[in-house]
Structure formats: structure tokens, C-alpha cells
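Late entry, evening session. Most of the bench is empty. Finally got around to the prediction I had been postponing all week. Sequence below, unchanged from the version circulated by S.P.
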Amino acid sequence: MLARLQQLTTLGMLALSVAWGTVLWRLGHPAWAAAGALLIAGGYAVVLGLEFVLLGWTHGDDPTPKAGVGARLKAWWGEVLTAPTVFCWRQPFRSRAIPDHLPADAKGRRGLVLVHGFVCNRGLWNPWLRRLRAAGVPFVAVDLEPVFGSIDAYARIVEAAVARVATATGQSPVIVAHSMGGLATRAWLRACGEDDRVHRVVTIGTPHRGTWLGRFGRTPNTRQMALGGAWVTALAAHEHPSRRSRFTCFYSDCDNIVFPPSTATLEGADNRRIAGWSHVHLAFHPDVFAEVRRWLAPS
């Protein structure tokens, strides 16, 4: 569903940009033609810019050091370059390009489950999947559906993926989760109640305590991600400290979606700050991939 929606959005945006430019050019207004076409195709950069302004404005007394304007500008540019690659190419057109990898000889090798975030699909992970497949790592990358459903409903999808990897490898998998995917993983742990079914959970920019932007949510899952909201509070109340010790949480002072920054941390987890990286871009930081590979290594 999401892939088709993003296909329509991407192609529609391109068609509108070309139509505007063509009409205005033929009417003898080349400057307006170029400006309008550029605004239609690149207007998302303005929205991203607003998010970074809000990130600085809402920082308050958050314990994470506040990123300066220069750092936020650099992170904004990283997101401007990353977002169209993810949302206009990998997810709409390449989400099935790299299938799950559970080879017949996977027994004895630690496997991986990849869980994406809000308004994403498994295409987000394509750069990861290529590297994992080349390294012979067994993996399953999920699609969380319905796109705008409750986070609790995603627990069954995580359960199916964990079961597949565990059956193929004979070992509990590592879960790597971006953004809302970390909450879906925690919801799965609450539902299954068996912490030893996962070897390690690595979250990337997950709104563990919600996010300031959640106040604007209108779908079930976005409302559940409200900062300090009832859902995230209830989720935390069901967790024993031993469960938190299984988590590594990567967060950033320049996350334009999950802020204030410390909301992406968990008390009792191994919390790691990566300065200057934006929300989607953070999923591709080399330190994140290296940490996951460390937990995939034989004990």
C-alpha cells in the first residue's frame, strides 16, 4: 500500500513540476517556469527546514547539548539529500528489490530482523540489505501494515519475522529498528513477554518517550507517539530494567523528527549520541551499522 501511495505522490509531483515549467515557458515566463518547477520538486526542503527550526526552539532544558545553527544547517542538508532517495526511489519503486535472506546453511549464524518506522517500508534498508547479503548474514526486513494503524498491531508482524529468523538460524536474532520501529519492537516484547527471544535490540532515532511533533498526530500510531503521552507511558510501565539492558539506542542532537533529543533514549539502555545527524540520515551512520555487526558476531 505505501509503495503505491509513494509512487503516485512521486510521479504526480514530477508531472506537476514539468507541466508548470512547460506552460509558463511557452507563455514567455522562463523565470517563473524555473522557480515554480523548482518549488514543486524541492518544496519538501522548506518543510524540513521548519522542522529544524522547531528542533532548536523546543530544546528547553533537555539534557542533550543543544546543536548550534551551523550543525543544524549541515544536518538539514544531509536530510535534503537523503529523503528523496528513500521516499521517492527506494520505498516506492525498489522495496522488493532485495528479498529476505534465509539460506539453507543459516543454522548457527546470528540473524537480523529489520523494522522500519512511520511512513516507511522495507525499502528504507536497501543499502543495509545489500551489505548484509554480501556478508552472508541471514535477515528478514518487515513491512509494517496498515501504514496508519495502531503500533500494537505491528507486534504480530515483528513476531512472525523473529520466528522465521530463529527457525532458520537456531538462534535468537538481533533486531535493528528505526524510529517508530523501535516502539513496535517494544510492543512486541510486551506482547510476547519472553525477552530471551531477542539477542539485542538496536534502535535508531526512536521516540521512546514520544516526540514533540506527536501533538499534531491524527492517525492512531502518530497519536501514540505524543511526547509523554499515555501510550508511551504505559509501555514503559510494563518494562523491567533487565529488558532495557538489551537495548542500544542511537540518538542525535539534530534529529528533526524525534525531539527534544533525549526522548530517543531509554533509562538503563546503552544510549549513544551521534552529533549532527538528521532523522532518516541517522539510519545510515557507519557507527550504527558497525554496532549491529558487533552483536551479530559469534559469541
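Two things to note before I forget:
The CA atoms of residues 252 and 274 lie 5 Å apart.
The two ends are 39 Å apart (CA to CA).
Will write this up properly tomorrow.
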